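Anyone else keep sequences and structure tokens together like this?

Example one:
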Amino acid sequence: MTKTIFYFDSVNSTNDEAKKLVENHKVMSGLVISDHQKKGRGRFGNNWVSMKGNFMGSAFFPVRNYNSIDKLQYEVLKIILNLFVIITKKNNFKIKSPKILYGGSVNAVNIKGLRSIKACSGYLVGGASLKAKNFIEIIKNYYN
């Protein structure tokens, strides 16, 4: 995995910069960091509060096999750890094993495929749980 770090003083969003690198410059992996985000956002376009002094960054890389995503996340964490060591001149950071919760569109149809992802620790069920019948189907399909 390429370990290139792209630094910006200020951006609208580190996610947008990562997307531009992939689409416009064919860069397939890296870490985009910035001191300031004007329009940072989280998943599904939710606002992301970007307070001065916080770490703002987006790691990006191709995922070919979701069963190995935990290894990829570990590699990204190592890159970020090395960055912190360089910036702070301290070497007392530790990496904990990430817990992966799938928070996409979980439903009764895709839950069987999702449960085959060994690195996934759990699922966040949103709109599909609004109707008890649909939620029960998800649970049944997970265990069958």
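And example two:
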Amino acid sequence: MTKKNAKRKPAKKKPAKKTKKKTGRPPRKWTAKQLKEIEKFARDNCAQHEIAEYLECCQASVSDRLKDPPRVDDPEFVFAYKKGHAGFILDLRTKQAEIMRDGSALKNQLGMCIWLGKQELGQRETPEPKPDERRYSYAVPVPGGVLFIPDGANVNDTLTEHFSAAQSEKA
């Protein structure tokens, strides 16, 4: 035996890797029937807690899947919900167009379509400005206050007029 071989220690065996035990409840699997129902409820604009009650799960099971980014990766659930909600938006716009064309809607139908349009579609009522009200597009800080420049006015001309008038007042 040479000195080199005598100093060498035998190779240690690596301990076997321990497999991690999965903790917690396994992810929920949805049946095709449940996914159709989720789509139907989203099309009817049901709240998340109502969907959860019907599916006999907690609201967190529904809301965690719909968050952005989702806490639980469940693309089938998200697809069914988004498809249903898109159907709701489409139905709402269609109903608004029908009411507009027919003009024979009941007052409560019209009010509901307006309210839902504001809530779900981001529609807004912007009143027409009164003729005597001036609308301003710029607010420019100047010595002694703020100069409001009306819509359609030339900014440079307005500033020149303001400063020439201020200098003539000083003189």
